[in-house]
Amino acid sequence: MKGNFSIMVIILTYNAEMFISNQFNLLLEQTYKDNMEIIVIDSSSKDRTVEIAKKYADKVVLISKEEFDHGGTRTKAGKMAKGDNLFDSRRFAL
Q1: E strands, the chain, in order
Q2: pTM
């Protein structure tokens, strides 16, 4: 594809320690990653999810479990987007 464009990846997490590293590795293996921004919104995980996410993500946002709702949280992340294209990555889709 010609031209420059950017991609923003949203990852919503809650206790995803067992899966999150693999998800980041798969994203970083993509052929187009030069202008990729990764934002993680975590719903107060009790495991090492946030610690792991901070190693890979450009931004990690913490919210309470009570603040989380599928559409609203994705909308919140989308408003943070700087990219031209938005990709919503779901842990259960891997």
Answers
A1: 7-13, 36-42, 59-62, 85-89
A2: 0.81
